[in-house]
Structure formats: C-alpha cells, structure tokens
Amino acid sequence: MVSTLTRALGRNIIDFFEKSGGMFILLAQIFFESKTVIRDRRIIIEQMHAVGVMSLPLVTVTSLFTGAVSAWQAAYQFEGFVSLTYLGGATAIAIFMELGPVLTALVLAGRIGASIAAELGTMKVTEQIDALECLAISPVRYLAMPRFWAVVIMLPVLTIYANVIALFGAYVVASTLLDVSATMFFDSVQQFFELRNLFGGLTKSVAFGASIALVGCYVGFKTFGGAEGVGRSTIDAFVFSAILILVNDYILAMLIF
Amino acid sequence: MIEIKKVSKSFDEQPVLNGVELIIEDGSSHVIIGRSGCGKSVLLKHIVGLLKPDEGDIWVDNVSVVSMRRRELYKTRVKIGMLFQGSALFDSMNVEENISLGVREHRMFPHDEISDRVAAKLELVDLHGIQKKFPSELSGGMKKRVSLARALMMEPKYMLYDEPTTGLDPVMADAINDLIISVRDRLGVTSIVVTHDMASAYKVGDHISMLHEGLVNFSGTPDEIRKSKNRVVQNFITGNQVVVA
Ligand SMILES: Nc1ncnc2c1ncn2[C@@H]1O[C@H](COP(=O)(O)OP(=O)(O)OP(=O)(O)O)[C@@H](O)[C@H]1O
Ligand SMILES: [Mg+2]
C-alpha cells in the first residue's frame, strides 16, 4: 500500500520534471527559431488575429461581471469602516494588479491554450507534423514560434482591454446600486492609481501568455493516440496552464509588489 | 544511394525492426512488401530521420541521417519526397497551399511561377481545378494524389511511397503505378514503394524485398520472388493462408 503510493508519487515527480524539462527545451527552441520573426510576420499576425477574435467576446463578458462583482464586494467590506469615496481606487487597484491579468489569462488558457493543443495535437496524430518535417520545415518555427509570440503579445493587449471593461462594470454598479457619483468614483481611481500597478499587472500577463502558449504547444506536440489523445491533450493543456498561471501569479506578486 | 545498415528499433520493449539490411541503388525502384504491422512505415520513417534507430545506421548519399545535425538533416530531406500512408495533408490549407508550402518556404521558385507549377503537378496526378478545395472536401484517393503532387513539387531525388495504391479503385491504382514508373524513368527519381498489392509490386518494382519479423527475409527481382521456395514469401505473394509449421 505504502509502496504503491510512493511508487505513484515517484512516477508523478519524474513525470513533472520530464514535462518541465521538455517545456524549457521547447522554450529555448522557440527563442532560437525566433530569428525569422520578421520573415514570418504574416503567420504571426494571422495568429494574433485568431487569438483576438476567439477570445474577445469571452473576455468582454468575464471582465464586465468581474468588475461589477468586485465593486459590490468592496462596498460590502467597506460597510461601516471605510467611506465609499475610496471605492473607485480600491476596485481599480484590485482590477489592474490582480483580477484583470489573472482572469484574462485563465480565459485564454481555456480558449486559446486548449485550442492550440487541439490543433497541434490533431496535426501530430494525423502525421501532419511529420509531413512538415519531411518538407524540411521546422514545426517549432512554423507552428510553435508564431503561436508563442501571438499569445505573448495579445494577452497584455487583451488585459488592458479587460481592465477598461472591468472598471466600467465596477462604475456601473457603483453608480446605479451604491449611489456613488461618477466624479466620486473616478476621482478616487485617479487618487490611488499608480502606473506601476498597471505595469506590474502587464508584466504578469506577459509571463502568463508565455505559459499558455508554451503549454499548449508542448502538450500538442506530445499528443498520441488518435482523437482520444487529442481530447486528453485539450484538457491537459488547460489544467497545466491554469496551474502555471496561478503559481506564476503568486511568485510574480512576491517579486513585483 | 540509400543504405540501411543493421537497423533495429523497438517501441516499449516491443521489437519492430531487428537488424534490417537493405541497399537501394540510384535509379531503381525498390518495393518493400510485408504483413500489416511488420514495420514497413516505421522503416520509411527511419530513412527520412523521423525516427531514430536503437541500433544501426542509415546512409543517404554517403552520409548518415542518424548522426546528422538538424541543418544537414533538413538539406537531405529536401532531396526526399514522402507520400504518407494517410496522406497527411495540412487540414488548414487548401490544395494549392498544401502543394506549394515546401517550395514557398524554401524559396525554390520565383513567386509568379508557383501557381503554374502547382497546376502542372496536379495535372500529373490527373486532378484539375481543385486548387481552392480543402482536404476535408476531397475523397481518400484524391487526397493521396494531392499528397503525391506535394511530394513531387520539391523535385526530389528519392521518392518514398507508403502504400500509394491502397484505397484507390483499380483504374486509378494502375494510373498511380504508371505514374511511379514514369517519375522514375522521366525524372530519374529513385523510388521506394511500400505496398501490400502484389500486382503493383510486380509492375513498378525492379527489386522486391520482404520484411518479416523484423528482418528482410527475401530480396530479389520480381522473377526471383515468384520462384522463391521460401514458404513465408510464397504464402504472402499468393495470399495463401497456410500456416508455416
Ligand atoms: N510511434 C510509435 N509508437 C509506438 N509504436 C509504434 C509507433 N509506430 C509504429 N509502432 C508499432 O510498430 C509496428 C509497425 O508499425 P508500421 O506502421 O510500420 O506497420 P506497417 O508495416 O506499415 O503496417 P501497415 O501495412 O498496416 O501500414 C506496429 O506494431 C505499431 O504498433
Ligand atoms: Mg504502414
């Protein structure tokens, strides 16, 4: 019983190191293949477009409601202790530093990370990746590199957008339900907001974007076992990148703020 | 010349190739036959360096694809066209993009020549005007022929065909056989053809080798294989079910 447990644990630990090692190698290969970014700009822009189009609706809805909830929640916690004149500032900082970057990243992990894994996984099991290799085209250069940069660039952009929408959501709740006027809300935002909150959040998004793309590509390339394998990869990609986002968030929060 | 030297390969302790020796002379067309699952596709993938042998070596034009660096491997791959058993067309690209991807990426021809060359290659495999169709809109046989056109587009010195006629009607299958022969004779392309189809093997092969239990158990001309006394070979080529004791 104990030995089966230790063995299972041992296998998981080996598996973990193997996967992290594999991802580091892939990351190094992506950087190495990035010498052709200029030449391959068309594929990168295509991917950026896909990332934007696929995630915009979901990001809009998520951030609108997140902003609304965070204003409501903050007001609830302020009750009796803190004046609502601080509401705008408090929600803005929570949104810029934490909620915007993390929730947008989680949405993209589900939408983009999983779709990268499914797409590359399908290409793997139907030998399209082998076919690329046979045409002497590097799959890392042609498939992974453009997706990596597309997500790394687009996630901060989408995060800025999400921040704005979330702030708007917070304002709507504040003004309609909590009786906070627009001037009161935005004065407080201005008073507390510092540029480094925004940049701290965006730094996190860059790291989250890299995690999402890297995990999606890695899991996709490692897919085996037909359609079932592709399904497994899709789920794995979301789970791994979600974990990586939350762990990274903690580590980066300690480093940045 | 392609030389396969004592190549062994196992997957998860399960031996598939077990010391395969084979020499493919330039200008020849070498047919490889063998039961399903005996490792024919695995052998082809070793030649293009998609799989690495556990033991042994593969030489293409006197250099080892096993110990080659990536850059050199890619240079060698440009010389080798591969028709995959499952066609392996790129789903996200239309027929024209599929066929021209290799030459566009390697900038082999001027931009304005590409669409004419694609049309010419499609003509060669008896397909017309399907440049804008996507792989999901094609039949299995059409996919196979598009895949063949894609491989030929790079004007390779070697062509590896993995079951080029399976899934085609007899007329089309014979047309593909003729095509393999004419590619060899007109363009001087050395061919390796993996097949189950003995009619096709006799027609296109000037040399036939049989893979059995991880080894080449017969290698010779079509005439020699017909006369072979080897029971396993006879059973295979006549489709006989008799179990060898
Ligand atoms: N990537 C792989 N991982 C694990 N096992 C593999 C892999 N590729 C092939 N095999 C195994 O190797 C054996 C030979 O497979 P291969 O595809 O070469 O057969 P084949 O001779 O081409 O058969 P067919 O005529 O049906 O195409 C099979 O048992 C297969 O399961
Ligand atoms: Mg096969």
Short précis:
The complex is a heterodimer of chains A (257) and B (245). Chain A is an all-alpha fold.
Overall description:
The complex is a heterodimer of chains A (257) and B (245). Chain A is mainly alpha-helical and 257 residues long. Chain A has one domain. Helices cover 87% and strands 0% of the residues of chain A. Chain A has eight helices and no strands. In chain A, helix 5 crosses helix 7 (195-221). The longest helix of chain A is centred in the middle third of the chain and has 39 residues, at 87-125. Chain B has 245 residues and is of the alpha/beta class. Helix content of chain B is 38%, strand content 24%. Chain B contains nine helices and ten strands. The mean pLDDT of chain B is 92. The chains are: A mainly alpha (257), B alpha/beta (245). At the A-B interface, helix 3 and helix 4 of A face helix 2, strand 6 and helix 3 of B. Bound molecules: adenosine-5'-triphosphate and magnesium ion. Magnesium ion binds at residues 40-41, 85, 162 of chain B.
List keywords for this structure.
heterodimer, A: 257 residues, B: 245 residues, alpha/beta, Rossmann fold, 10 strands, binds adenosine-5'-triphosphate, binds magnesium ion
In order across it, which strands form the biggest sheet of chain B?
Answer: 6-7-8-3-9-10
SSE arrangement of chain B, N to C: EEEHEEHEHHHEHEHEEHH
Elements of chain A, N to C (H/E): HHHHHHHH
Strand tally of chain B: 10
Mean pLDDT of chain A: 90
- Given as residue ranges, the uncertain stretches of chain A (5+ residues, pLDDT < 50) are none
CATH overall fold name of chain B: Rossmann fold
Architecture (CATH level 2) name of chain B:
3-Layer(aba) Sandwich
Number of helices of chain B: 9
Question: Which structural category fits the helices and strands of chain A?
Answer: mainly alpha
What is the radius of gyration of chain A? 21 Å
State the major sheet of chain A: none
Task: Provide the residue-averaged pLDDT of chain B.
Answer: 92
3D shape of chain A: globular
Number of domains of chain A: 1
What portion of residues of chain B belong to β-strands? 15-25%
Instruction: Give the biggest beta sheet of chain B.
Output: 6 strands, mixed
Total of helices of chain A: 8
